[in-house]
Amino acid sequence: MTGEDDPMTTTPQAGPATTPGPTGPDITELAARVDEAARRVAELDEPARRAAEELRQAVEAVHRAGLVTIVRRMRADDRARELLFALVDEPEVRMLLMLHGIIRPDPATETARVLAGLRPWLREQGADAELVAVEDGVARVRLDGGGPACSGAAAVLRDTVERAIVDAVPAVHRVEYAPTRPAATFIPLTAIRAGRPDAPSAAEGWVRTMPVDQVPQGEVTPMRLTAGEKEVEVIVVRLADRITAYVNACAHQGLPLDAALVDAEDGTLTCPWHGLCYDARSGECLSLPGAALRPLPVRVAGGEVWIRATAAEGEAG
Fold first, then answer.
1. Which pLDDT belongs to residue 170?
2. Domain span at residue 126?
3. How far is 299 from 187, CA to CA, in rounded Å?
């Protein structure tokens, strides 16, 4: 469908199914009925299958023509436009409009669905994949596991993922692979020995911060570290026997996390600005796939917590 034919410009995100209402079955049951009917039609003999297909196309053409008229009229009316876009967020309405090609899921949603479908197979290969972003027809994917990047097994995984995405998502014509995210550095407190002499070198960017027994449990501790001529805003999080450190910037808009809420039981850290939730131990964003806090290396020596502040300028390591 061309841009002139398309009555909608919004590309809604996938949402959860609703619970059954008084008017009939919920969206999951309806979709299952469609799938079952399609399966039964596929089992018919050729003449019957062609007749069923012609009937389906004719009925859908009538429905689509009516829906297009409704959508165009509502878009043209200032009072109805707000209601239209609210309706698009309803799973039943969204499914109906998508079924008739009136709206389409955005490329990121389509790509994420492809990766979700591939995930069981990827895990059988000891690998996993997550979507980082889709921009200008290029999907950036982070592929973890599957052997060294130069191995034949990894090449097969990359080729399979790319073919699946490009074949299923018309808006994506190429897949690029993001580097594997470095794991956050944490220190098990059981490994700390008081008076340990091998303090990290300040020349390598390590900064002594505070005594380990003063790092509060289950809270965010903001710090401003100076390494050479550089100042770095940092947060330190302690959960049970782990201490982690991150650059003090939310992965969403770079806002500070001084007032972030730590849930020690769930092991999560929640941004106070827009509610993005992170795994406090790894920095991985649980609300926005592909996003993550930037981890900084941590060491404990002589009962003091040291952070390599210069790692904020590049990859942590």
1. 82
2. 107-178
3. 6
